[in-house]
Amino acid sequence: MTLKKPDPRPVFVLVLMGWLLTSVPAPAAAQVGTRYLQAARVNLRMAASTTSASLALLPINTPLKLLGEAGSWCQVETLRVSDATLSAAPGPINTGAIGTKGYVLCNVLALQPNTLAQVDMQLADDKLSPARLIDFRSRAFWLAPSLTRWAAFGTALEQNLTEAQRYRSAETGAGPIRPRSAEFDAMKALLAKGTVTPAVPSAAVATAAAVNPATPVTGQGGTGQGGRVVLPEAKPSFFNRTNFQTLLPSGWIENGGGQNPTPDETGKTALSWGIDGDQFAMLDDLAARVNARITVTVTGESYYDRGDSLVGVWDVGALQLALSNPVQIATVRPNGQVTALAAQTLQYAIGGNSCIGSGALSITAPARPKGVRGMGDFLLAWVGRMPPTSQVQVTSRQLNGKTMWDKLLVHQVDVDGDGHADFLVQEGRYKPQISALGLWKTVHVNIAGSWHLVYSAQDADCT
């Protein structure tokens, strides 16, 4: 095989009009210089063939020196790989092989390294093919590993299946439910080693637009008493955009909710609650807020619910998450009693149970607060500024109507006792003709004098 070597000399073109000699660079594909891998996992081959032995498995943005071209293959030489690149490596890297020569496909090389902004721009294209979606979801994970990007890649794998592939094992009872994916397994291996999620704006507030207090709060179903509630006037009080971080789903006062706590192997107590919305973003946010390294262990496989609905992410149904630094959680009971919890170990059943407060996610607390059975015994739970005292003011009222669906519970919570509400919590029921899911709940928080809807959920009534 004959290689076309890069020519460092300029090519001179004679311009007849005006007899001007102009220097024109050589073709880009043959320029001397550094190239960067664009794909997430690239084998450095001994020869220009996909069947040739692999010398190393290199991650995205690995710098390589271009030596020459042979058709669709490029001969390259490995350069120094940065510590940051190695820490995100999707597989074994020959770290001592600086100067090793091998072959990669030319179409995975570029003059500039990938950036997350470039990848996100591609992902914003809703016309991406399933294969391209998998490619860019993979790039996004290895550029900035996180639970959210891991789950998005698993979802992309799911979208690439045909309908027959998606439900075949559900119909036949044959396993496995999902085949092993080397890429997905590599991501799980990195998460098992531990990764640090870059700090991001709070998922609770950044995406929640301010709410006009003069507009009636309609509730989940838009029926019954929900349309009669108007938010109280919001004035600057306890929270601002920097000290309120994440609202954690807590119990439902109507049914008591929550599981009984169970001791773990260290004698501590696990408290559980259900999660709605973007679960993985919330978990990433928890870790980022305390600058914690998060270590993820797979503890359960995905499964079919009701015969044909996959519960899990690809082949994973349950996770254990360990944080290097504990997350401080403030909780408030319906009587206003404040309890501080330190969460460092979390058990997460992806998809969880369809019953409110049933415990899709659990934290390991140092000890069970007296009188608390589970997260269902709390009215509110959040990560952020802690209440100044062990008691806050909770004003609750119940609006009644002709039927149970016209009943509405409204709770105003004043955290710092300045006379201004910091939370407004509403709970109600759907009419059966509106939704088979029996209960709905919303939580607004007063951020710097503006109301923001930070929690809106519906779930089954399993009482």
Task: List the main descriptive attributes of the protein structure presented here.
463 residues, alpha+beta, 9-stranded antiparallel beta sheet, 6-stranded antiparallel beta sheet, elongated
Low-confidence stretches: 8-30, 82-96, 219-227, 251-277, 353-360
Mean pLDDT: 74
Largest sheet: 9 strands, antiparallel
Shape: elongated
> What's the end-to-end separation, in Å?
73 Å
* Number of strand elements: 26
SS-based structural class?
Answer: alpha+beta
Percent of residues in helical segments?
10-25%
> How many helical stretches?
8
Task: Say what oligomer this is.
Answer: single chain
Rounded to an integer in angstroms, the radius of gyration calculated over CA atoms is 28 Å
**What percent strand?**
35-45%
Verbal overview:
With 463 residues, the chain is an alpha+beta fold. It contains eight helices and 26 strands. The strands form six sheets. Strands 10, 14, 15, 16, 17, 18, 19, 20 and 21 form a nine-stranded antiparallel β-sheet that branches. A six-stranded antiparallel β-sheet has the order 11-26-25-24-23-22, with no helix packed on it. Helix 3 runs antiparallel to helix 4 and helix 4 packs antiparallel against helix 6. About 18% of the residues have low confidence.
